[in-house]
C-alpha cells in the first residue's frame, strides 16, 4: 500500500464538481454503492478521505487516531518497544478481567 503522501490514484472533477472514487481507494476503504465518505481537512492543507463513520461512533476517535498516525510519522523516534516489566505489570492489573466487547452497555453506562 502507498504511503499517505504518495498519490496512488487520481480522478477528474466533472463540470458539476463530481468524481468517481477510484477502485483501489474504494477497496481500501471498503466502500460500496450508497456508502458515505468523509473528508478531513488537516491544518497543513492536506485532505484525507475515509469511510464515514456510524453516527454511534465517538466523533473524536478518528481525530485522535489521525493525531497519533501523524505524530508517529513525524517523530518515529518516540515509538518504543514496551518493556517486559511494563508488560508484566499490565498483565497483573488486567489478567483476570473478563470483557465482552459485543455485550450491550448497562443503562447507567450509556
Q: Which ranges are low-confidence, i.e. pLDDT below 50, for 5 or more consecutive residues?
A: none
Shape, per Cα inertia axes: extended
H-E order: HEEHH
Number of helices: 3
CA-CA gap between termini:
38 Å
How much strand?
5-15%
Reported for the largest beta sheet, the result is: 2 strands, antiparallel
Helix percentage range: 25-40%
Give the strand order, joined by hyphens, for the main sheet: 1-2
- Secondary structure category: alpha+beta
Overall mean pLDDT:
84
Q: Would you give an account of this structure?
A:
The chain has 110 residues and is α+β, with helices and mostly antiparallel strands. It has a domain at 23-93. Helix content is 29%, strand content 9%. It contains 3 helices and 2 strands, in the order H-E-E-H-H. It has helices spanning 23-29, 61-74, 84-94; strands spanning 37-41, 47-51. Strands 1-2 form a two-stranded antiparallel ribbon. It starts with 22 loop residues before the first helix and ends in a 16-residue tail after the last helix. The mean pLDDT is 84. One of its GO terms (biological process) is regulation of cell growth.
